[in-house]
Structures
1.
Amino acid sequence: MKVLELKDVHKTYNSSEVKVHAVNGVTLDFDEAEFAAIVGPSGSGKTTLLNLIGGLDMPTSGEITIDGTDLSRLKSSQLIDFRMRNIGFVFQSYNLIPVLSAKENVEFIMLLQKWSKEEREKRTFELLKAVGLSDRVNSRPSKMSGGQQQRVAVARALASRPKFVLADEPTANLDSKSAANLLEIMEKLNHEEKVTFIFSTHDARVVKMAHRVITLEDGKVVSDEVRE
């Protein structure tokens, strides 16, 4: 089942009277429960493509469809709601709310979606257990290591049962042991939650674990390797 389709997607920026083709005619589709990495040199368009997929930016031309919905046809308020219900984000810098505990960070999006207290608590504890943080439920980000904060971020990304999770360089700020632990957790959740993970990465460890590797150069897809 296709959860995401991109058709001839372009993103062009005007810089000092020069057009920069950050994403240049990308056509891709993703199935449910894929574990895919987007790789390429700096400036190849990885983060721009991820931002377009996540509805954080709009393409100059082309079509991005998530579960049958064309993002370009949504009004701003509709896009925010759609993104909240269908897409989870994991950022390089964690982006946790510093004054909230691990539990409160994970359940925040469910509060916005008006889940009941019982549903929120059940889902939150389920996810924090899944990422190995049952003992850090009430800890704030400042009291956790980088690896622990990123595991909270993964739990938060999965909280509302999204169609897929976009992870932009999620291991970049982690030591090798924390990065390996995080990747194992995400691969496990990929299987258990049946959610598609799409990474933008330079990390060879992520590439090694990915079941599909898409390589970009100058905003174009130059290879798309699916592994068994």
Note: DSSP finds seven helices and ten strands in the chain.
2.
Amino acid sequence: METSQRPLDLDAVQAFVLVADLHSFTRAAEALSTTQSAISLKLKRLEERLGRRLLERTPRQVRLSADGVNFLDAARSLLAAHERALGRLQSSTVRLALGVSDHIAGDGFPAILAQLHAFDPGVVVEVRIAASRDILTMYDRGELDAAIVRRDGERNDGELIQQERMAWFAAPQWQPRAGEPLRLATFSQQCGIRELAIRRLDDAGIAWVEVFIGGGVHAVAAAVTAGLAVTALLVRVKPTGAVEVGKRLQLPALPLAQVVLHSRVRDPRAQAVLRTVVAAMKNDGD
């Protein structure tokens, strides 16, 4: 099918790239601060302009068609060329210092950072990963422009962006030792999730002992998968190979974790990139 030579709508091309990266009309709409229906209309018109179906829509997911896969690299190149034409890469680089709690980042976070570069290569994102309280301290000192952390009981500010399930995890064959306290792998004593977990155990009258303390999410995950102990984590950072054991061990239920955004970002381009981070992290946690 032949198409006319009128130029492509760059906003529609950007919407297509975001839907392709986020696998979601809803998340793409959040990243672009618009509505899902507006994204759908842009993509419908783009498909009509190209004379090709770019996306396969199902109730559960959005996938690229064969033509969509072929068009994606060209779409990225077109957006990058547009940025170069505006002179943004050479003359107006924007810096965004972002802190993210290690309980939230997860293994998918590097892929999210790669998406950011494609979204606007002229925004340089500097990332700090640490415990929520440490990230908030850096944010309060002005060292970070934005922070994505788990809300604890000490402060209620910040914009709620997601509620995520927490659970107890252990190696598949792990069993408690008869007559002994529950063996725990936990984070530092300043960690809010540690405080929550042991408080729930105490309220349930379950004896416990810490056999592995500190070292961050990956260190605790390694202790769990090695069969040393049980731990409480957000499901998004579930250790590879570990399984939920709360029901089997009759451990107390854990509440939903509230993920919040603190931001003092004012630059429109940095704000757009930050919205993309939030949308991608929501998608990664689904």
Note: The chain is about 45% helix and 20% strand.
